Amino acid sequence: MPDIDPAVTRQVHELMPYTRLIGMEVERFDADEVRARIAWDPERCTSNGLLHGGLLMSLADAMGAMVAVANQPADAKGTTTVSSATNFLRGVTSGGVSGVARPLHKGRTTVVADTELFDDEGRLVGRVTQTQLFLR
Fold it and tell me: Which one of 14, 47, 81, 126 has the fewest CB atoms closer than 10 angstroms to its CB?
């Protein structure tokens, strides 16, 4: 279980209110790495008690946006996702999902983030690569 940082989680919820709605908790948020988690809950599931894939994509998208925000140039006014590719590798029926997002590319106009999602046993659940565009 990661060491959740309530102050950073509150900061992220203020920056992106949707992260509060999905129950995202944040451990780390800086230019090199973002770590966050979402707990399993029956309200967040699809059939057979599987954590919904859209929720996992939301977690990864928010984490990629955080990587971009942490790396944005001074003249940028924000970011937006321009592409995202998701590979699901296993379902999650209990516990939760933790993610680690890191920048693959830090450019002047875009950031490419790679996010790995893990279940509580440390097994890879999914991987998301996305491009975030800096808004000016």
Answer: 47
Alpha helices (H) along the chain: 6-15, 18-21, 53-70
> CA end-to-end span of the chain, whole Å?
38
51-76: pLDDT as tens digits: 999 999 999 999 999 999 999 999 99
* pTM of structure: 0.94
Read off the DSSP letter of residue 126.
E
Question: What's the structural domain count of the chain?
Answer: 1
The pLDDT tens digits of the residues spanning 88-99 come to: 999 999 999 999
Going edge to edge, which strands form the sheet with 34-39? 25-29, 34-39, 96-106, 110-119, 124-135, 78-88
C-alpha 26/C-alpha 24 separation (Å) is 7
